[in-house]
Fold this protein.
Amino acid sequence: MNAMNATEPHVIDGTPVILPGDEAYRVAREDGLLTPALLVFPEIVDANVGAIVGLLGGDAGRWRAHVKSAKIASVMRQLVAAGVGHLKCATPLELRVACEAGASDVLVAYPVVGPAVARVAEIARAHPATRVSALAETEAAVAAWRGTGVGLFVDVNPGMDRTGIPDTDVEAVARVARAITQAGIRFGGLHYYDGHVGTGPGWEARAHAGYDRLLEIVAALEGAGLAVPEVITAGTPAFAASLSYPRFAGRRFVHRVSPGTVVYSDVTSAAQLPPEWGLRPAAVVASRVVSHPVPGRVTLDAGHKSVSADAGVPTCAIAGAPWLTPLKPSEEHLPVAVPEGRAVPPVGRVLYLVPRHVCPTVNSFDHAVIVRQGRIEAVETVAARGREQPIPPSLPLHLKMESSAS
């Protein structure tokens, strides 16, 4: 099976998607590579980061990149080196790794409750050079952060109905913002994740209508004497809509966008985002053919424990081979259909899989193989994968012992 021209499209759910051929990912001495293996290409990461900063008019400070995708400390350092010092995360572990990577400002964009409040505050105290913030959606939640030094953003629900105060309840947003300032806590602004708007007909208009409501909230807060320092919108799905919305310009607040998947890109983002942006997949899974079970089918060693199935089937595209169709995986097996008349890749052949959803795929691996100019440069721990131990190191010893005894 020869390398394919990168312009031949893959078809995912009926949508033609242009992906690089396998020549972009093939590594020297792949015969010694244990598979499945996560490969990360820092040169492509740099190009993707540069493309996003370019779309933001060269202002890297307008990007609050979500590091749920990056996960790897060296990739977070690449973001910081490119001027993307404002980051966003979902877990205390991601927060710690982002702080250690030199981020100047990190928002934990996830409801932090219970013992996690103390853990986030502990990480913030250990990294005084990084400004740390969290989210609040009720006045009661604000009290837990008093005296921690952690700032708070109000989480606004744009209709995704996952977290936050509905964007139609302006007064509730104002009450929480007022509670933050009255508690002596730094008010960071408004967090508004509109990942549900989709890409179907009218999606941009729906996103813009949501931004209109968001600006009404800002106006109400400012009218009540509450300055709004920052407004955060848009992960990867709605990023283009945030770029095209003209009313964010010229405001008192700083508007930041927060896509994270674009750092690595994947099959889904390739289908969602304009191809002229030039984003390319920067993280792939190397997988081997392990069986020819029946005619017209081969099996790879990259089941859903390696390539996430959360975005549906097919879980991936096979670089350089758009005619190969990945089927429903099991834990360690990925069956692939080979159409009649096409060469069947032999047992032992390494294929390079572009994930449909790269973020949980990266989270599946303990290690990443860093590849530069076709050669393996290093093997790096995926430092922010998974979670911290459930009993924090700072917890009093007698509580740890009681926990173990129970």
